[in-house]
Amino acid sequence: MKNMKNIYNLYNDKNILSYFFKNKAGIYQLKNLKNGKIYVGSSAMLSRRFNEYLNISYINRNLERGNSHILKALFKYGYVSFEVTILELIEFKTNQSK
């Protein structure tokens, strides 16, 4: 992953986020460019998480179930208003010997 930037626009860079972070785990930060609020999250599958954030059905379904600040903000301000920063990629080591 050398020479990769670590700041992306959630909407405009959706293909990059989906491709480069497929099957990658990590910690990320979403920053609302309209009000400066920051959300920090983690996922065992970053590309799946970003794709979920871009899926209006996912957002609506999960907002009905509970109180998610980030999903409410995505719905209110729109995808293009969020910047994604990859804070850390995490490699999981599997124990092959038993």
What are the SSEs and their pairings?
Elements: E1 7-9, H1 14-20, E2 25-32, E3 38-43, H2 46-53, H3 56-65, H4 69-77, E4 82-90
Antiparallel strand pairs: 1-4, 2-3, 2-4
Helix pairs in contact: 1-2, 3-4
Secondary structural class: alpha+beta
Mean pLDDT comes to: 88
Radius of gyration: 14 Å
| Biggest β-sheet strands, sense, barrel | 4 strands, antiparallel
Count, helices? 4
Describe what you observe in this structure:
The protein is α+β, with helices and mostly antiparallel strands. The protein is built from four helices and four strands. It has helices at 14-20, 46-53, 56-65, 69-77, and strands at residues 7-9, 25-32, 38-43, 82-90. It has a four-stranded antiparallel β-sheet, with helices on one face. A hairpin with a 5-residue loop joins strand 2 and strand 3 (38-43). Helix 1 runs antiparallel to helix 2 and helix 3 packs across helix 4 (69-77). The longest helix is centred in the middle third of the chain and has 10 residues, at 56-65. The chain is globular, with a radius of gyration of 14 Å. The N and C termini lie far apart (32 Å).
